[in-house]
Every structure is written in C-alpha cells, then in structure tokens.
C-alpha cells in the first residue's frame, strides 16, 4: 500500500485539514463496534422502500435507461417534483427552470451555499441543528454564525434574529439557514412563527435557505413551507430520503427562483454532472403514485415518539414533545456532571445504548443527547430498559 510522499504532506486545503468528521457518523461508527449495543444514532428509517418504487428503478434498468440524463435531472422527474410541491404545500415552481435534482439533500445544501457565499460572508444558523451546515459554510469561505435557541424552546424568534443581524452587520449577512421539522429537536415552525422571521428579512439583502427534508413527518399539524411566505428569497431543499425511506437512492432537490437556480446548477454540473437514472425513475414513481406512502410510516413513528418521550421524562431527562421528524432531544441532568460527549460515551460503554451527543449539532446542543426513533419498537423498548438501569447507577 502506498504511503503519502513526504514532499506533499503539507500540500493540503487549510480550511478542510483541521476539520473533524461529522460527529454523527463518527459516534455511530464508534459505538457500532461495541458488542450487544442498541444503536439509536443515525437518522436512517428502518422501513423498506415501497415495492412500487423499487419496481420503477428495476424497470428503468431493464429498459436500458443508462445514458446521461439532463444535468438538472430528467424533466419528467422535475415535473413530478413540481406537481408534488404544488399538491402538498401549494408551492409553484417551473420544472424546466426552477428545479434541480441533486445527489441527496446534502449536495443541494452545498450547491446552494456555493451559489451564495463569497469569502467573509456570514450565514446565520440556529442551533442545535443538522451538523453539516456549519462545515459547508466554512469550506466555502463563509462564516457560520451559530445562534443558540435553547432558551426559546429551539425556536429562532424574530426578535432574536433581528438582534443577531444587527450585531453581525447587515451588509455581511447573506443567508439564514432554517431546518424544520428540525434535526435534532423535532421543532416545527408554524405559519405565524415563520412570518416573524419574514418580517425581519424581507427587506434585507439575504436569502433564506430552508431545508424541509422532514416535511412529510409532522404530527400535530400539516407542514407549512417558508417558501409560501417568501418565494422570491427562499431556496427550498427537500428530497426522498426520509419520506420514502430512500436514503441510499440519494435523491434530493433544490427549488427556487430561476436566476438563483441557474447559479446553483453550475456547481451541480461541475461536481456530479447528473443524478443516477434508476434512482430518478424511482423518485418519479414515489412522487407521482406514492404521495400517501409516508402516512403509514408516520403513524408508527408517532407511536414510538410518544413512548420515548414518556419514558425519558419519567427518568428525569427533560424532553420536549417533538412535533416532527423522528428524533427526541433530551437534556442531561446537571447533577450528573457530564458533558454530552462524556454522557454518550458512558451510556454506550456501560449501558450498551448508542445515542448522539448534543454538541454534534452545534453550540446550542451541548448538555443534550439525541435519540433517533427511526428504529424498531423492540430496540427502543430495550434501549429504555437499559437507559433506566444506567440512570439509576449514576
């Protein structure tokens, strides 16, 4: 096996080199090596892809759909995305010019920020939140401004946003990053709460990047998109990974104004050329004939959520009822004297339960831990038995 030549050991991107890996993945892989551990770390649905969706991918292979698609994705898929967004959320996008199909929502996030950020530009990121926003902004030369929302029940209020923009300099803030339903908190913004934010940003020279990948997984009320209130400045990110358990198919998308989409599509074309054909045909089938597929999954997720929240609060782990997604985000009692990393490590090694430390989700996540209930009820119940025993030992 080749060893890196000493002459190039210092030839490295100085922005990326000091960065660690995604803590979510790091802890998941670390804990997976512990024999007998119940793993509740990754946001990986434990459901299979619906049969009719799998059949569409298989059929595309049989029909030799093996050549490059349009760089933005097959027009038929973009039409399906446009129709889905219209039917489900009353959002209107031209499939020819205002939609790009990406390799998962992760690529959509990267392409979007690449089209917005110049070196030194600032992006406001409410935390705790999905871990990848912060390093992507840094890689592109931007400055992530982490805003701790724990004091407001994980909501970024209009008042708080206005204060941050004033402190950071309105001329330097180029985007607000939203993720709702939220990972890791399950927080869902209502129309009125979104309007608070719109009132702050509508006259400012900044975008709202709205990652709504969990839009189909809300429990108390139907998802309302930021793009409905601020269509000309909102970049909508979504995909099929969570709604249809299609994580491995890697299909996401960007929807937004034509002039912005043209810029984001440049980065998309430079990095991946085009998405995979079988995955695109599967996604088209899911959006055209499988809109109701998530309903059965959501019912099961809600049962798991209710059980988990009751158990966690009963054990003394303060847990707000999540209104969406498939995570609980619980406070670690201060009397334990443990950081979120120390708590997660100790729980894994001594209690044989794998959770994700809150600090993995930004500054606002410290003092908490995330459980993914995209796992079987049997595993969740066993994990709660072990957590209770572990808690009593502390």
TrEMBL record:
Question: Which EC class heads this enzyme's classification?
Answer: transferase
Keyword annotations: Aminotransferase, Pyridoxal phosphate, Transferase
The organism's place on the tree of life at top rank: Bacteria
Q: What cofactor is needed?
A: pyridoxal 5'-phosphate
The GO biological-process annotations, alphabetized, read as: amino acid metabolic process
Under InterPro entries, the record lists:
Aminotransferase_I/II_large, AspAT/PAT-like, NHTrfase_class1_PyrdxlP-BS, PyrdxlP-dep_Trfase, PyrdxlP-dep_Trfase_major, PyrdxlP-dep_Trfase_small
Q: What residue stretches are annotated with the Aminotransferase class I/classII large domain?
A: 37-387
Q: Name one GO molecular function term.
A: pyridoxal phosphate binding
Task: Return the similarity comment.
Answer: Belongs to the class-I pyridoxal-phosphate-dependent aminotransferase family.
Record's protein name: Aminotransferase
